[in-house]
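#struct-help
A.M.: can someone run this one for me? Single chain, 255 residues.
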Amino acid sequence: MTISKESVLCVDIGNTNLRFGLVSGTRVEGSQTILTEDLIGNPEEFIRSLPREVKATAFCSVVPAADKIVHNALQAITPNPFRLTHENCGDLSISYPAPERVGQDRLANSLAAQKLYGTPAIVIDVGTAATFDIVSSSGGYEGGVIVPGPKVFIDCLTERTALLPKVTLPETPLAEAIGRSTSEAMALGLVHGFPAMIEGVLEKVRCSLSSIEDEDNKVILTGGGAFRVGEIAKIHDLDLTLKGIALAFQFQHSK
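D.P.: on it. Structure tokens below:
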């Protein structure tokens, strides 16, 4: 599959954030991120922010409530917006037994990993949930692991306890390992505990993948929270999902 240079306006609708940008080849221009709840509550602002001078539009979604809004917005720009599904995700083979139940963003990530970085690969997407997706050279998309994302950890503690406060997620590393307040203790639990959990899951996944593949596997980080576990991988690609959507579109329209 040749990677086309044609620009495609791609939209990735996630549980917390919606991200969009113009994808041309392996380059993403003008990417923007908005809260998905803001899209649903005030779609006009999203619609005004979209570029109009494009010939192709495409999207994927894991939020049914946002699907029609985005589809209609893109349809106003191009007649037939492309939506990535398990049935049209390029030439990505899928070994997973129920492909229709795999998140569309996870398939987009896996396709982009396969085409842009090679296989075997493990994609870690840190968002509302942190997902691990495994792409082998022989079977394509094999499956993965899902764990709570950083914000869900903090929100769960606040919502499921009587006295723990709501805290803001720290954006910079914390050197301390002992909290001197409840809020600091919660922040430290996230800052040190979340990466340890990701590393532990990754170790198990790598062991399982080594039973399928002889080659060394690549670890690719994406998602808005990927910086929290940045040291575990050399490849960081914030726009991986958008690139995967564009690749699926190009494959579909090259037939």
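A.M.: thanks! The helical segments are 36-41, 43-49, 64-75, 104-116, 150-159, 182-210, 240-252.
D.P.: also worth noting: The chain has a mean pLDDT of 93.
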